[in-house]
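Incident log, structure service

09:12 report received: a user says their structure output differs between two submissions of the same chain.
09:20 pulled the input from the user's history:
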Amino acid sequence: MLEPINVSLESLNLITLAPMLIAIAGGLIILIIDLLNEKLDKSLYVMLTVLILFVDFGAVLGLNVNERGFFDVMLIDGIAIISQLMIIGASMLFIPLALTSKRFHEYSYPEFFALFLFMVAGFQFMVSTDNLILIFVGIETASLALYTLIALHNRADSYEAAVKYFTMGALAAAFFAMGSAVVYALTGSVELYKVAEVLATRLDDTGIMIAIFGSSVLLLVAFSFKLSLFPFHTWAPDVYEGASAPLAGYMAVVPKIAAFVVSIRIFGMYIDLGIEWVRWTLIILAVITMTLANIMALVQNDVKRMLAYSSISHAGFIMAALALNTTEGNTSIFLYYALFMFTNLGAFAMLWISRHKTRRFDKRYDHPYEKFAGLIQIMPIGAVMMAIFMLSLAGVPPFSLFWGKIYVMQATVNAGYVPLAIIMGLNSAIAAYYYLKLIVYMFLKDPVKDVDTVYYNISKPLMVIIGLAGVATFTAIFYVQSLLSYFSAMISISGY
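09:34 re-ran on a clean worker, output below:
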């Protein structure tokens, strides 16, 4: 007869689950409130969501570093904490945009906010574990919610975008599941730290090495989909174009932070084991992705699609830092995305200021360059803010992303990959052209005739969020060193 297993609450360390449970409980509360009274104003749900995210943020700050919980599947290390803080911070910046206008009707649905919180919980699960099964659960929880959020925009383009994203996400999930199955077959474990211990003793076996190669390829394909790396990047511009402008900006940051954290854990494990082909595959993918995306961005006629290709290029740039597998390289990833978060969300939010139902500038695109022609004459502050965001994305000093790019390239040089750093610098120079092109349209061209018939959305919440993003972008020089020190200390504690 089997002995009963006694599990104490102390050993479960349920506090490690608290941040995710807060987000899930918040989503359920919003749904229950809507069931009780469906006539409540949407501003209540916005404020409630922000409040839940604040509580979630506080719960993450209260966690102890390097703890495990819930049968050891939860891992709260430095990377888990800083990535959760960034995910929740970006979410708090995004949600108040729901107060800006009634024209984005999805914000009037309580389900939108509930799904948003479920998605945040999914991302938090992804970054707070080294268990492949729980990572998979987190990916699917977040992805299924995000597909629905895109479709809620309720336009033909949005349905198309949601279906494309769903199809690509299903493929990525299949590759991840197959890669994880191979890892489990090789090692008998889905815990990455145990997998590393077992694999370290079996690297002399040729058959095992072939199987390891297969698992790494499958997992790399899965995360190439999620990070929109070449050649699995083609969905991104169409999906960003179909989503609402602020949600597209959010998608370019938060899902990628979560995917990069999982990539650091998985591919860092392979590189630590001395499997160099993984490192070189990541570097080659990074170079091709950033170069191809920049070339594609050069020929775009739509600002939103240009920004979509730009975000693909930035993901390639960061993948190069991930391939280094050094503390400095991993620190540069988080610094880059902490700075990119404000700049990118601000740039996408700026697309919203001139949204209109009819495509009066172009039959194919919502945001052609002509739409921004002469913006300095129509909306001077808006033109200046957009110019700040473009200069930052281009890596022009002293704006925020300049410091992110410099630190990533410094980490690359210090790791001994000087040619890679030169390629990264050349790509930044190419990217400057298409960012400056928009500035030329805004400042040096005349507005399109009858432009006064276009409705410009200058509501206070939108301008406050854009202003906050602009100030963070412009004053980055004052907080970069503090962020750098904090991230470096947290990542060093984690042993990465």
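09:41 both user submissions now match this output. Likely a transient worker issue. Closing.
09:42 reviewer note: The chain has a mean pLDDT of 82. Strands lie at 67-69, 74-76.
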